[in-house]
Write a structure and sequence with these properties.
single chain; Leucine-rich repeat, LRR (right-handed beta-alpha superhelix); 5-stranded mixed sheet; elongated
Amino acid sequence: MKKSAILSIALLFALSAQALEFTVDNLKYTTNADSTSVTVKNPVVKPVGELVIPSHVTYNGKEYIVTSIGAFAFERCSTLSSIKLPANLTSIGEAAFRACVNLTSITLSENTTLIDACAFALCYHLDSILIPKSVKSIGDGAFLSCIALTSVTIPANVDSIGLDVFCGCSRLSEFCVADDNQNFSAVDGVLFSKDKTTLVVYPNAKAPNYVIPSHVTTIGSGAFAYCEALISVTIPEGVTSIKDGAFVYCMALSSITIPEGVTSIEKGAFSTCYYLNSIMIPSSVTSIELGAFCECYSVREIYVKNTTPPSVGAYGFYGADTIKCKLYVPIGSKAAYAAANEWKDFENIEEIDFASVPTNEETPFMISTDDDGMTITGVETGATITVYTITGTKLLTLPATGDKQLIALSSGEIYIVKVGYQTMKVAL
């Protein structure tokens, strides 16, 4: 056989193996590798109201099974209100329904195994979704900023949940997990790994003050991300790892004590915590990664217990006021910090005896408010109470005088109250 004939036959086979694209009833499809099924590529004209995806389509006399929704297929279809997907559907592609801002309901197939990254991100009116028990994987940011969602049930077969899956779901108050799921569990509405050592996701609309259970050793990537109402969190001594973006955009968080045992604060862990006022870093921390405390503009006190300055990645403390913020370091280590990258940018470095610095094991104090100001209870007589404006300016310092203490302050303002190392955000 001539070489040209061989090339022609090879070309013919190559062309026959290529995906076929066609349009049926306003929807574009592309054939899959098996040549018997198709993926919905995109609509010719953006659909209005309810959309029903067919289970089969016929083109040139051949019938195809509809098995997947392609990446970006219906992105920004703002006129969609509801969707019914076919029973044969197995996957929903990346950003398939992203920014369908008027989508209120969707019926998923009981054969769906994959909800890919950002599949329903920015679907602001999606108030409920039943994740089928067939689903095994939920990709990064799959339900990002679905602000109408109030609760989510993780079914039995889910074994993978990506980063930032429920970030910005500001009304989400609880997670439920199917009893036979071997990978995740829910305790008081908070999502954990099955053995409860990793805190996976804290619901955005849950209580603004949270004590992480003592059995937790890892705070997962993005676990508290975008919890904009979170004011305080107590991290137990057993935690050894704080993952990427664990507290990113916790804008109301005012103070954080990182326990001994943590060796690295990972990328962007506390990034954009605008009102973070005080940070305690234990002696076990040896590295602070890229942007870990980036854009924490209000920080005024950083306590670092390690006598050897931890390494700090680029933008580690970007945005911090290195003139106003005080850096407290162990006695005898000021020179080392003054010479170390990133740390040397702080102009106020002070040596202290950390044995005298309070920890997060103190008994929490309570604050109530009325037209006259705030009343503080639970503070030991003689302890120092300091009140700051929300921007970090110190207003007053006074000793605690007893069980209940009224502090007169102007109404209509937000204040940061500090007792020992503990802080609390108060709105009058």
